[in-house]
Amino acid sequence: MKYRESQRDKELRKRFSNDYGHLLLRKIILKEGTLRGLDALDIAFQYPITAIAGKNGSGKSTILALACCAYHNGKTGFKLPKRKNSYYTFSDFFIQHYEEIPPGGVVIEYHIAHNNWKKTPSFPDGVGIGFQRRRKKKGGKWNDYADRVRKNVVFLGIERIVPHSERSQSRSYSRAFSDTSPKGWEDKVKDAVGFVLGRTYSKFRYLEHSKYSLPIVQVGDIVYSGFNMGAGENALFEIFSTIYACGGSLLVMDEIELGLHAEAQRRFIERLKDVCYETHTQVICTTHSREIFDCLPYDARFFVERVNGKSKITEGISSDFAFAKLAAVPGAEVELMVEDDVAKAILLLCVPSEMRSRVKITVIGSSTALARQLAAIYIRGETLPALAVFDGDQFGKERDNLKHARSMCEKTKEDFDEWYISRINYLPGETWPEAWLVQRASECVSSLSPVVSCDENALIDILEYGLQAGKHNEFYEIAKQLGIERDMCLQLVTMVVVNNFQDHFKPLMSHIQKSLQEAG
Description:
Elements: H1 7-18, E1 25-32, E2 41-44, E3 49-54, H2 60-68, E4 106-114, E5 128-136, E6 153-156, H3 168-172, E7 178-179, H4 186-197, E8 203-209, E9 212-219, E10 222-225, H5 231-245, E11 250-253, H6 262-279, E12 282-286, H7 290-294, E13 301-307, E14 310-315, H8 319-327, E15 334-338, H9 341-350, H10 353-356, E16 359-363, H11 367-380, E17 386-390, H12 398-408, H13 416-421, E18 424-426, H14 433-441, H15 445-452, H16 456-468, H17 474-482, H18 486-500, H19 506-519
Parallel strand pairs: 3-12, 3-13, 6-11, 11-12, 15-16, 15-17, 17-18
Antiparallel strand pairs: 1-2, 1-4, 4-5, 7-8, 8-9, 9-10, 13-14
Helix pairs in contact: 1-6, 4-5, 4-6, 9-18, 11-12, 14-16, 14-18, 15-18, 16-17, 17-18
Domain AAA+ ATPase: 46-308
Protein name: ATP-binding protein
Organism: Methylomonas albis
């Protein structure tokens, strides 16, 4: 389903793009060299929460490590228990056996939105997005860490879900933990975790001993500590407590969904957005969860993969495509790749059943992601025929999409452009598919009226309301007016339009038929 940005999403995006006071990380570029198999990286952050998916060994954890090393910190900066320093260095993540060859010839560029850069002609007021470089020559050390921009960075790995009953230090100090003075954010953490888990906590606080802490809560008349919490509950208290303890930080998390069931994951991201807005926190995480992807805007999702032995990262990818790739689901004779669920609904109804049983329709995400995935197929030399079906409004942007596809290839072969053009097609119309469907529906109201059980004159007005609702919101408005679910509304309108305008699909059907013949 097409992601609909909420008001909170819009507020987060607007403030993130205009915030120079909280030293937000805006881009990481691996300019030279290779780190733990990651040989190429250019990732831009446009939203305060970023999720990265990919198969094991694709480079997800390496990207998290690079993010952690973007900043320095003072001695009084926040640090987790057992950490010696309040900042991270590459040696925290890139640990090697003596038989391994250490990386060398590496250059990493960090772009940071800052309001106190050294004043130059480029930054006369010291405000803007500048960059710093970290270098490591062969056989040498990384250049001076102390030169980095100063900011709290916290890395939460998968050990956060280890129950206190299985943590040696917690077991050792089980009787030594005692009350400490309140931090002031306990109620906020209590409410956040309660929202995610659907539970009402009347009290929450941390007990402490030395540098270790133990959560303790009260639900009704029952009091229990972290020794008797589930893994997800324990992790949530640690995550939200960390955010409030060092607000305005960069929080880096491995497998953000660990310990949480699907509904809790969705509610977690919902509350995380609110807390990030409140505290100016930036989150970069990895995930293997479709629910996490579904809860974030397209430009906050990245998919990392190895294509022909090289690292490739794609922005704006759909959860359907990303997690089908992770599941390695075998394909049909021809794969039809589309931008969103509306395009998929159109193809499912316009492709004849004898052809439909032989194709797989995959939602990719943005038009850019669609072009780049087609290029990835070319690079891998996959034998399964694939056809990228763009929305009608992309016809005039064919050169731009071809450019995106070329950028996926380090060295574009002479036949690439011809290959690419032979494997793209378009949905009917010169606009996005929702608008095209509603416009055509207005021309066959007499056919649609009995299907949706609505008077023709009233239906004309409802379709007009839909067109005025804005891009990608058309069927939400029409469904609301008709008193049915959005997906049912989309299916019914699409069915009638496809039946009445079959001629509009002939070029596309011919292309699909040709692809099936090639596959056969």
